[in-house]
Protein 1
Amino acid sequence: MSAPDGVGPSEGPGRAEGAVPGARRWAVLVTPVANRVYAGDAPRLLAAELVLVLGAGGRPVDVAVEQVAGLPYVVLSSPGDLDDRSRRAVASASTAHALFERRALPDGAEALVPVPLPAVDLYDDDLLTIPKYPGKTNEHVTRLLLDLAVAALEEGPAGAVGGAPAAARRLRLLDPLAGRGTTLHLALMAGMDATGVEVDAGEVDAHRAFLVRWLRTKRLKHTVDAGRLKVAGAVLGERLRVEVSPSKEAARAGDVQVLEVLRADTAAVGPVLADGSFDLLVTDAPYGVQHGSARAGGRGPAGAGAGRGGATGRDRGGRDRGPRDLLERALPVWVPLLRRGGVLAMSWNTHVLPRPEVVALLERHGLEVLAAGEDGALAHRVDQAVHRDLVLARRPGRAPAAAAG
């Protein structure tokens, strides 16, 4: 299911385009976004996201973007009340700030009545917002990727996003290009276990220093273990393992989440990680461009959300990080790590790798590319050199009964 062609900006309060008369109506206030370029696209992207995520539960919904009192809202129209699943979907959406029900008043005016949303993050969001460094991917994009990936994980036909939940157990996520761990941290906040692979020792060290300091500041019960990463006696790199509980009550109950980081070449971790051990593979591919303020082989300007770059397309480990060559080399390793029915969600720069080529690459390596985003609803400008798009793909087949919980 993809966002309808009619989703776009409109003026003034009114029912969503195509809404059924008499349906209940809601308005989602869009979170203010510091990045000026992304802020312009945020309402449109949120609308596309909610169409996909609410549709994944089989809920019919009409969506439009409106300016209400000069502020951007995504307006929803659907028969009946929003159930718990739908409210959780809105609460976890990438740029959803608050939810209101739109009610007509006797004098013809309209009131926005606040609707409480459930708390969905297990940890404080400064786990995402505190780190500032060159080339950090916009955390709103990371939320969008993860939100869509989880929705796509819910079983449905290959060309669609939708169906019943695929698993009751804790989900496991892999980011094979982890950087300093934004995706891994968001996975923790969502209640998942997370594993990242990053070849750059400086990135791994910076990630570890921040995460340990943050956990201590928050006084969360945790353990940290680090050591060599070996395969058949040969040293492949290093391994960082963090175990953490979101609360004292969770710790007493033995509810422990695991975050692991492997400092290694992403195309060499196949012997270390078990096939079929991840439900989700979520990553932001290198953008293949150089930004003036970035270090050689770096990842773009600080705070711009420009993501992964480099004049040569190589990281400091000397390995090719251009998206086309990287995907050709890494997909044969990544795909088997997904369980049957597991989902890959990836963002990348269409200026250096057009969408048809990405789709062909994923299909050639045995993935079923989903329809979400094929209409351009998820594409957006980052800067002059980067036009970012998102793609979702599923590993064919169904999870074994034991893996499905």
Protein 2
Amino acid sequence: MAQLQVEAAPETTTRLWTPANIVTLVRICLVPVFVVALLSPWPQWFNLPDIAEYSKSLIAAAIFVLISCTDWLDGYLARSRGEVTDFGKFMDPLADKILVVAALLALVELGVLPSWVALIIVAREFIVSGVRMVAASKGVVISASWYGKFKTVFQMIAIVMFTVKDSYMMGTLIDAFSDMMWVLSWAVMFVALALTIVSMLDYISKARDLIGLGPRKGKKAKASRGEAESKQVTQKGNSGAAKSSDEAKEAEDIEVTDSQLESLAASVLSQARQQGLTVGTAESLTGGMISAALTAVPGSSDVMRGGVVSYAVSVKESELAVSEETVDKHGVVSCQVAEQMAVGACSALGCDAAVAVTGIAGPGGAEPNKPVGTVCFGIACNGNVSSQTVHFEGDRNQVRRQTTRHALRLIENAVSASK
């Protein structure tokens, strides 16, 4: 039995020439500019004898910092404009790798860095890319950990420091340690190398069952801001042994039947009638499945006010009053956005209680710390607002149906507890 948690991402657009993608392509095109500025005798080409070698290194470092900053810019543009594309997901990490590898090779060429440093970093990228390819071929997206994020930051800082300051590799060890800049540069680089190795081992550990290194122990997913459901995928061994009762229950939980949804929907409506409340929905990844379950019950019109299918970010903002600032700060798949969606649904539909869902059903679209199957729920009832995040297992349809079931349970509990 194995469990790999992978997470959902914001809605994906099919447009290619988005501002975010243009920034990514510009970043790649600027990499040769940095290499030329660092390695070539361009001051002589342009008859600029006043520019010394040290000044040339500072200019090259400034170009590197500029290119690095565009990594934040394209991500911000993609999220804030709701223009996350498959092309961007492919090119953005590739652009980072091209920049780092080009910078390392340039520093090796200058004799500033030993080749083994570049070898460790490049080898890690090949290994992680291979692991990701194997995982993707089996329908699993492995999200990056904080090790990888800090690894990138420290690599960038170390490269800038080595660009502006020679490491005195040809001098004596005593001379080197007398220069604090040299010591600091290597200290940052060693931290970057340590994080490089640790992040690689983290990827391998997460995918050990996928690459034949044996199963890893599954961890139950924890819901944030409230009670959450944990799901596990049960895999039958080569021996063909029967599933245990717990495994059978987990598999049953993943499969949501129509009768379950019908029963839950009827219970929601019954509880709402008893409390004299009206209900509504705001849905993203489920695309109206929750409201469809409620309206499928005969006589639901006296309680059910309606539903808003806000698949695009722009619809969330225009129809449900989700703030652009919240999306930029926390992302579309977040408890904060789910709460604003629920409150916005109550306002737009004129209902007393509303449930909202935002997440990613897969099979692709996972982002760091947001794997496929992650869903954020928001509940608003008589002025009380709450939210939680749940990680579901299964394919796209299973995640959507589990989301529908859990949303019905949440609004049922909220309505029944309302005074």
Protein 3
Amino acid sequence: MLDAALTFGDGLDIVRWGLAAISLLASLAYLAIESRPASTLRTTLKTAAIGALVPLPLLHLGGGEASLALVALGAAFLLSSFGDYFLALDEEEKNFPRGLGSFLLAHVFYLIVLVPLTAQPQGAYLAGIVVLVLLAAGTLLWLWPKLGKLRLPVLLYMSVISAMAIAAFCVPLPWLGIGALLFVFSDAVIAVAKFRWPVPARGPIVWITYYAGQALIALGLLAALH
């Protein structure tokens, strides 16, 4: 999958692999200092982990319908990095809704890329959708009494990320569905910790599952659009 996503033989492969390496290194560096208080370094590393992926789809722009999907994928990466930036800042009451909104828009752009690639899900893909729906619906119902004024924003966000993940399971590439499920799981852990009770090792659990999910979605879609 790595070769299919990053090796095009057009003279820009070293740039693609370099950006992927920067993303991974930034992710690992952020994980090492994730538990520290907010700082410029911590925020920069968290933002760069997905931000480094933004140019990848744009390096392959050409003519035809694929260009829209490539631009949308770049936008999804960019908005995800905005979400990471806001969630890395202090003043959670102000910045949490901003991060939520950024990720909501990112999922909309992921949907723009995914929907044209979908097919009728069967077998393991269908089972993945069932697991996803149970996870999302169960988490939302459990959190609902505690959401207060954030009920509608959280409901909207959960609906959109669930639609994105279902679309990922409808694409016959297993890494996409696994990546989407990891993304939903990481968001569920954030929500439980914010609205219900503390989750042990919340930071590493959220970051590892989130970054792994984003990486699998990114590599899967880059390969599909190759």
Protein 4
Amino acid sequence: MAAYGLIPLPSSVRPGSGEFTLTAGTALDAPPELAAVAAWLRSALGPATGCALLPSGAGIPGAAGDGAGADADADAERAAGGEGRIVLALGPGLAAEEFRLRITPSGVRITGGDAAGVFYGAQTLRLLLPPAALRRAPVAGGPLTVPATEIEDRPRYGWRGCMLDVARHFMPKADLLRFIDLLALHRLNVLHLHLTDDQGWRVEIAKYPRLTSVGGWRSSSMLGSRQHETFLPRPHGGFYTADDVREIVAYAAERYVTVVPEIDLPGHTQAAVAAYPWLAPEAVDRPDTADAPGVADGPDTADGAEPAGGAGPVGVRAAWGLSPHCLDVTSAAALDFCRDVLDEVMELFPGSHVGIGGDECPGDARSRAAFVTALAEHVTGRGRVPYAWDEILECGAVPGVTVAAWRGPDAAAVAARAGHQVVSCPDMSVYFDYRQSELPDEPIPVGPPLSLQDVHAFEPEPAGLTAGERSRVIGAQCNVWTEHMDTPRAVDYMVFPRLCAFAEVVWSADRAPYPDFARRLEAHTARLDALGVEYRPAAGPRPWQSRPDAPGWPISKARREAMVAEFGVGKHRG
């Protein structure tokens, strides 16, 4: 049985006898407060099964918390007995995101502590069906069946995230919506969108249109690792309009995924400086010699016409790596610009957290700390929670910030001990741009090897924390930096199946040994095949997944560990 190949591993699985058959006459009933989950389940199962899953019109025993204890159990038995239908319900006594899935030969009942819990139960039902049920049209003749079983499940963490960098390589909207579906399938509930960087600005800001008309594209990109200084002279760009963002946010919300925007400030802002040169200090108001040859560095236009890409004293950066061209952290105008941008972003993204970056900014440390603190206070003043990389720990006391701890376990420990809520994302455990093995044909191999087993072994809570400090680790996220992922196919290869292992880390409180996970993954990859996910095979890349044209720059784990140790996390500089 091996938990039916389910990933992530449920808390409890009790196999039953027989199976439930999904037919054209199968009904799906839900109370009004679960209408959205019911609509999603119909849309998810209908195309491949041919089943409309219409409501039966009958009452729903136990819906919306009707009954408790033994009475609720009796209601569940009646709902799953003799009616040949699927019933969705809310149940008292279940926590947020918790669910109970009961399948008998005569019916299915999914009870959740809230709508999200019911949704995760519905996703589990979907995974219990044959992989053909995940396709977009029928391919198998005859009815589909699901084994009789009872599954109880709940998440380990409330923040189960994935950071996707759409700044280095833009992901078109349709592909991003597909990516959200894959996150939801694996019960991740946060999509952290890295929307801006030196290499591109990807979100429309009405007050500053040049951020996308100029900052939204670059004339060329690096081919392979930056150490080789090779460029591909092909323009790259794209951005999400305000309506695109509204659609993405709503689509994600229907799948219980919160989109957390990140506007990386005040560093990683060369695209913004290219659009509005007055944002930069005069000391660096000059052409960027680190960019590719041939990038236009023409003068700014005074008549409002949009110049070619690379306009102004500095072009949108084509090279990877850290740019010296960032915002002037002593400028009141630059601070007002950031506040304006964040206000528009908060209008578009209604979630509790707003990313402000705070990482890898050159210049005077004291001025930078004051600037970042002002940004955090602005977000807090709007009733939101600022979310920043762990370099913010070097800005002194910035209260109310949730910290994305990427520079090793020490960063998470320092942040938790300082009283911050922490999202653990150490690079050597969850940076999915790192190569997946020592094989020479891994595409653009950079960083230390980060295998599937390495990800599965990740522990978000650093050793040595007190119980109170551990409670501040609200979850974890994997980070997908896309310098070397120029297509959604490349993202698929680098992310899957490592994201499957990560999902188990953040969802399953009782993590099974790796061999058990690997056995379940064999069944799960058939689901990924049905969904069209071009994951990395266990034996290594397929010939077309390698990139002999783009050389990498691999380093050893020991070398990376030494680099992380040199960071001096948590020390106030300046």
